[in-house]
Design a protein that fits this description.
The protein has six helices and eight strands. The protein has about 180 residues and is of the alpha/beta class. It has one domain: Response regulator (Rossmann fold, 3-Layer(aba) Sandwich), CATH 3.40.50. The strands form two sheets. Strands 2-1-3-6-7-8 form a six-stranded parallel sheet, with helices on both faces. It has a two-stranded antiparallel sheet with strand order 4-5. α3 runs parallel beside α4.
């Protein structure tokens, strides 16, 4: 078992995916469905983030290769309403993805997902490229949904207490 409570065979991720069917989905409005770009070189985590976002009626495009994600952004910048990217992506970083996203679509919300605390220099770099929020892994699925909703004003069926936007969220991966 790793430090996040997941087994080497990925069973914790599968348990989370199976639990998603119990999450209520927000009805999709009569306009184009909102679309999320999800980038994580760990395919299982990318799939989980995509499925969580889809529970609120969003469409998600998941990429394990940041270069492919950036190419998708460049080819159709208006296609995405939010970017969720892991910080560490092999030879590239989530900051590279965030930079490309903000360059082709200024103001697009970007959430950086990180398994480790950010240094002061990394915080500055993230803010400089346009990252609006950092979500630390492991995180609770409701924290991810609240982060997406808070940056996109996506409606929620569940009442939420009014609170200022959070710069950092952290918690447990599963209920």
């Amino acid at each position: 078992m790793n430090r996040h409570g997941a087994r080497a065979d990925g069973s914790a991720v599968r348990r989370l995916e199976l639990g998603l069917s119990a999450c209520p989905a927000t009805p999709v409005e009569q306009r184009r469905a909102r679309r999320a770009l999800v980038v994580d070189d760990e395919r299982a985590l990318m799939t989980v983030v995509c499925r969580v976002v889809e529970t609120i009626g969003w469409v998600s495009d998941g990429y394990a290769d940041p270069a492919e994600a950036i190419a998708s952004l460049v080819s159709d910048p208006a296609a995405y309403d939010i970017v969720l990217t892991d910080l560490r992506l092999g030879d590239q970083t989530g900051l590279d993805v965030a930079t490309a996203a903000v360059r082709v679509r200024p103001g697009i919300p970007v959430i950086l997902l990180s398994g480790a605390p950010l240094s002061a220099a990394m915080w500055d770099a993230a803010a400089d490229v346009g990252v609006q929020m950092v979500l630390y892994k492991p995180f609770h699925i409701h924290e991810l949904l609240d982060a997406v909703r808070s940056l996109t004003d996506a409606p929620s069926e569940e009442p939420r207490p009014s609170a200022p936007r959070l710069a950092v969220l952290s918690g447990a991966l599963a209920d």
